[in-house]
Amino acid sequence: MFDIKWIRDNPNVFDAGMLRRALAPQSADVLALDSERRGVQTALQDLLTQRNAASRAIGEAKVRGEDTSVLMADVAAHKDSIRVAEEHERDVTGRIETLLAGLPNIPAADTPDGGDESANIEVRQWGSAPDFDFPAKEHFYIGEALGLMDFGKAAKISGSRFVVLTGALARLSRALGAFMLDLATSDGGYEEVVPPILAREAAVFGTGNLPKFGDDLFRTEDGLWLIPTAEVPLTNLVRERIVDAADLPLRYTALTPCFRSEAGAAGKDTRGMFRQHQFDKVEIVSIVAPEEAEAEHERLTACAEEVLRRLGIHYRVVALCAGDLSFASRKTYDLEVWLPGQGRYREISSCSNFGDFQARRMRARFRPEGEKGTRFVHTLNGSAGAVGRTLIALLENYQQSDGSVVVPEALGPYMGGVTRIGGDA
Question: Which pLDDT score, from 0 to 100, does residue 71 have?
């Protein structure tokens, strides 16, 4: 969401930001509605002044014992005009809010230009891809051969894009979630939260998932939305609050189920676990003062990277171009892991800086020390680990020629001494 006063003062900058998003200039439409609203507000204020003056005149006329019928008719006429003006103001305000609610955040100055993922820029790599002396398999072949990953049973229960994990793979999934959560709280300093996984429409709107992406979400019959990520409840913890500057930064983490309809992914990753309707994820969210946002973005990304480093998985960090940013983001780093079975990098975590875009939608502010006024906080979030996709990476990177899978040492305390799944383990 945008500050309309800022658009008034910076129409060219606003339009340039929209152009980087491959959108037509928007300032003319926004400012035309803004001008209309200000005109209506001025006219409404004049009507209110005239009505008040007429009301006073009625009182004075009554004291003098004079006929007030003409004045009463004047007040009644003003009442009708005021009602019409108020309705006009509400209508214009609604049109402005609808227009602004559908516009994405402006990319940061150092976000690369480009229209799609082909223009993303690799920032760095860590580790190296495993060198197998056998043909690498994709995760679903490995899991199904182990007898611990079943898409057919899941389809009978729920349909496509679901999976049933059993035995050691179920435990490995649980171990990954606990490991990621422990790392986020101990090393990362994030406060653990158990939030609701159903959210009101206003909360989902606050993070920018609505109204544009409603088709990608699941909605209950009573109007609540299943969260697509814990970003929604965690970021909304500061909704409609004024936070003391001394309490910033606020850092939250949660391990939750997440739900996405994947309406925009028809035909993509239909086999396997990569794109599911239901999945577990550890989210990390930061609420900071504006001056701290860029440094916090680097810190948050480093926390997400540490998960992959501890697990020994080769990955790269990619800066997304303007055309590949999510709706609410101004700058994003994607962490992409190497999947030997697919022979390519795949995104496993996105770490984003939203500036004040979400805060304006949530009306989340802070009071700087020594100042009377308030400012909007800046929000950031990332995946400390998408459990399912990390499980995919483990299966493909730690697969063995006999079909077994080695368990990374970092997960030892969570696996009860199990060091290998399948084979002679």
Answer: 67
